[in-house]
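Researcher: We're teaching a course module on how sequence relates to structure. For the next exercise, students receive a sequence and then see the predicted structure as tokens, so they can try to spot secondary structure elements on their own. Here is the exercise chain.
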Amino acid sequence: MSTVNHGIDRVRATFDDESLIADAGLLLVATVAVRLGLEALINSTVRLTGRVGGAQPGRKALTLIHAMISGAYAADMATEALRAERDARSSERDALAAVMWDAEKHRLPDSVAVAPQKLARLAGFEIPTDRTFIFVKGDGISREHVFSMEKLTTLLAVHRYEGEFENALDAMRAIYEVGGKGHSCGIYSHDADHIHRLGLAAPVSRIMVRQPQSKANAGAFNNGMPMTSSMGCGTWGGNVTSENVHLKHYLNTTWVSVPIPEDKPSDEELFGDFYDATLEPEGEVITS
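Model: And here is the predicted structure for the students to work with:
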């Protein structure tokens, strides 16, 4: 392949092999990217510095994605550059762990809820002033891998999965065995099946779909969650409620009960397929 255009709306690839269909090969990918708002999402969350230039990070990222899908040589070079940058930060990762947890893996207070610049300085390095968080690549999920534990600061651990979505669910389950059961999780997806499967599998009281996690958890006018700063975690987290604790939970309710005509279902109606008449005491079988 010789060229790939930047613009999503002007996707064009020229292949050395004339038997390949250039435009059709990228059209689907570009269309999906537009409908997902991927470029805008990257522009709002990613900042570029240094020789690569800071303008239009979303378009630059999509150019790389298009190139990777097309098999462009540029993709291999860009990937190598990203890998080199990641490897250069391995010592910083160890330094971050040292200022966030003690030898017994207790969370150290000085690095809790601090700006990423302060977190970096505590670990002995500097980051640009426009950075809003630090992320590290997860190297495993267990209490032996501290970055899979609760961090309580401006640092994100990224755990990659490959293959079937069930592999992602397995990683999610492992993380909640380390901590955080009952609270929340999120998924950025338009795949209804993936969202449904996460809802069935995640041991949490709230799941945010395509929303900023912490803000959405606390309730908003556009997501139906009751507004609160106190979130129940259900029996997963040892709480009496799994709801967003808000005004109704602070009100006392008085029930005034008067006799009413009896409306009693039979055992057969109550238990359905589980009902077994042979277990009823003799003379007490009641059916509808």
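Model: If you want an answer key for the exercise: The longest helix spans residues 73-88. Residues 1-24, 72-78, 81-88 have pLDDT under 50 and may be disordered.
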